[in-house]
Amino acid sequence: MCNMKKFIYSLAIAAAFMTSSCINDLDTLPLNETDKTAEGSYQSLSGLEQGLAYVYGSFCLVSQNSPGASDLAMDDAGQSEFIRQLVMLNEMSVDALKCIWGDPYIIDLQNNSWSSTPNSSTIAVYTRGMMAITRANEFLKQSKDKDIQGLSQLRAEARFLRALAYYFMMDLFGNPPFALEENINGELPGQIGRVNLFNWIEGELKSIINGTDGEELANKGAVDYPRADKGAAMALLARMYLNAEVYTGKARWQEARDAAKSVIDLGYSLCPNYEDLFLQDNGENMNARNEIIYAVAYDRDNTQSWGGTTHFVSASLSETANQDVAKVLGYPEGSKVSRDNWNGYHVPSEYVTRNFELADVNWSAKEGLGFDRSKSDKRALLYNIGGAEAYDKADVNTGWRCWKWTSRDSKGNLFSSGDYSLFSSADFAIFRLAEMYLIYAEAQARMDGGTTTNATAVGYVKALRDRAGLDTPSYIDTEFILKERGAELMWEGHRRTDLIRYGLFTSSKFPWPYKGGVPDGKTSLPSFRIVYPLLQSDLNENPNLVQNEGY
Predict the structure, then answer these.
(1) Is residue 277 situated within a structural domain?
(2) Tens digits of per-residue pLDDT, 462-511?
(3) CATH number at residue 160
(4) Residue 96 falls inside a structural domain
(5) How far is CA 252 from each of CA 195, 242, 245, 409, rounded to the nearest angstrom?
(6) Over 90: is that where the pLDDT of 517 sits?
(7) 3-class SS shares of the chain: helix, strand, coil, % to 5
(8) Of the residues 398, 426, 454, which one is the last residue of a structural domain?
(9) CA 435, CA 484: separation in Å to the nearest integer?
């Protein structure tokens, strides 16, 4: 079987495998002049592998030309990348991430003021999500009934990627268009509703896990990283079940716990050093790989963009912060932990106080990180020197900074000088073992009435807190688990979904800076904002679609 990472990377410079007919089926899909006819490309195992790689690439590539040229009609190519804007929709719309830049999408997200007029975030995630679905549908249509050894597993992977894209669309947009293979050269897609979409995704995942229709994902470790296997599908099921009450109106805590346990039992292991999970060689370092269940892969040579993990590495630190963090980590004077200093992203102090246990915080300190890292949560990859505590969107020198992603690798090498280090090779984990531990613990606590002393659940939380250098109480409740999720999964695209599940996203009792456009955030949000609007351009072109309520 092919090395899928190699094939995904090659698509940054190779021609694509997709029919131009797709543009008529989903008008939100601008295609590239290099696209070729699929019928001539899916005739061999090699062609099929490359076609599948094109589906994988939907989640990380901005074009097949250059990092500054997007295949979407957007002025900033980096802002058109899927993972970058997925995280923005889920972290900047709540208390975890803020930014002093004045881009329209940042204003919309930071103030919770988005509307049916699309911005860069909604355009990128909606369009690239539907692109992934359409490419998977094209692959499944073209590969149907072909007698090629190994094809059934490739088809299962395509179905997983389609289900994953539909999950993101369901979570963010509620009731997106629903298209299958028959919509290629067929009728425009309609909508089936959030509950039915949840049920469809669930059925797809169970089918490719169990191979009930002859198409089955590989067992853990049987395919090359970063291809999807049964662990990825089981992890997606666990996450869906955790949020089932939001999506369907019916809680499914038992299924969430059991699905998480099924992933845990596959044999993943926690990375001993939390930082290694986000370093430049996390896709090669087996300590990190053993925790990562499924990741979107990046490579500075062949999948270059200003999105992905490149923007995480570059966007937060100032020049001074960059050098201060490097000094704390033991690098020579003048070294930087990140190649660029975009000096924009901030973490509000409210988020840090809620989620991290820090020792000796000092906002007037002139060196170090602004707290005693040796006595604090090891997941607090934060910095506050020289700023004001209260985040102000008009002041670049306020709130905390985050260095969770940097230009370092696990061997201590710094890729922070010269053009070669402009882009990041750190992969972005969609699912990792730590999340499964937290899903198990939360589901158990909810089944036990909000608080649990269950030894397995407490043990999973203890494993994470041991790694973070923290003590663990003898019992845990749902509030404690939300705090743990905030520390463990910060900026990994979970926070908005978590706050909605906990009933805190719209509540005036849970403020954050500029919530609803109010500086102190002491306001409520209308309930319709728990989903984003469908793209108006899609509604204009497809009479089968209805906009989400409130937009």
Answers:
(1) no
(2) 999 999 999 999 999 999 999 999 999 999 999 999 999 999 999 999 99
(3) 1.25.40.390
(4) yes
(5) 13, 7, 7, 40
(6) yes
(7) 45, 5, 50
(8) 426
(9) 10
